[in-house]
Design brief:
By secondary structure, the protein is of the alpha/beta class. It has a single domain, classed as Ribonuclease Z/Hydroxyacylglutathione hydrolase-like (Metallo-beta-lactamase, Chain A). Helices cover 30% and strands 25% of the residues. It has a six-stranded mixed beta sheet with strand order 1-2-3-4-5-6. The longest helix is centred in the last third of the chain and has 17 residues. The protein is globular. 45% of the residues are buried.
């Protein structure tokens, strides 16, 4: 049975300075684009965006710097768990969460699904838990996993998929869901591939921030987003190399649909195909 995939906006972000981040006639916000995958009676999330505890205690969970610079809309209705409940789905049916990486705007909802197994690259888990550098302490917030997460850690090893290397199938999940290492933005960043019918959906996380970056004909990105990615990158060279591979995939990968975590236009585009079997 082919999975049913829902595209969710689990957070709205209004970062400064807006004039350098957005297109003149485009959206005036960024999103936290997550996936809800229905596998029969079982549910899988790809990233969680912000969670209920983030809304209830934003300073303690997200920190003053993030609140001041990124300015998230703290609305419980945007959380993944609220959106599941609105769809009449039982949050306890979420048995697995596959995360692209552990930045605070991607995993705030983990505590809303305490019984789920959370799949992440081992290097990402180690970097986040070490809290070794000031930059890491800003992007990784231990309060978001302090409830006691059931981690499933994965190494960079596996098969080739669509020209990308070290792609991993995940224990407990069907082969329709794959972890695709795309290191650069963070130490253990990964994209997540989900097969739906005769096509693959590739959630690229923060491997890029704007759809223009994977446009094979004329790569482009608003200057503010380009600068932000350069500043926060764990490995700038690897980030650009993986972004180039994604651009090649966008040009040659028949049956693969790419989207990132924060582009609102991509979310609108993919949501128009929401829940297609």
């Amino acid at each position: 049975m082919s999975p049913i995939v829902h595209h969710l906006a689990c957070g709205l972000l209004h970062p400064r300075p807006g004039g350098l981040l957005y297109e003149p006639a485009g959206h005036r916000h960024l999103v936290c684009h997550c996936l809800l995958v229905e596998l029969g009676d079982e549910l899988v999330l790809v990233d969680t965006g912000l969670g209920r505890a983030d809304v209830a205690d934003p300073r303690g969970r997200l920190g003053r710097s993030f609140l001041s610079m990124v300015r998230p809309a703290l609305d419980e209705r945007h959380t993944a768990i609220a959106q599941l409940e609105a769809r009449g789905l039982d949050p306890r049916a979420v048995r697995h969460i596959v995360v692209t990486h552990l930045d605070l705007d991607h995993i705030g909802g983990l505590s809303d699904f305490p019984h789920a197994t959370v799949h992440v690259m081992r290097t990402e888990h180690a970097q986040a838990h070490a809290q070794a550098a000031f930059h890491d302490r800003q992007r990784y917030r231990p309060a978001q996993w302090s409830h006691g997460v059931r981690w499933s850690l994965h190494d960079v090893a596996g098969d080739t998929w669509q020209g990308l290397r070290a792609v991993r199938a995940l224990p407990g999940l069907p082969p329709e869901i794959l972890l695709v290492p795309t290191v650069g933005h963070s130490a253990g960043h990964a994209a997540v591939a989900v097969r739906r019918g005769d096509e693959w959906l590739l959630h690229c996380g923060d491997a890029y921030f704007h759809r223009g970056e994977v446009d094979p004909s004329a790569p482009d990105c608003p200057p503010g987003l380009r600068f932000f990615q350069w500043v926060v990158a764990h490995d700038r060279k690897a980030r650009l190399e993986n972004q180039a591979r994604l651009r090649e995939l966008a040009a040659t990968g028949a049956g693969v649909r790419l989207f990132c975590a924060h582009d609102p236009q991509e979310l609108t585009r993919e949501s128009s195909r929401d829940a297609r079997p």
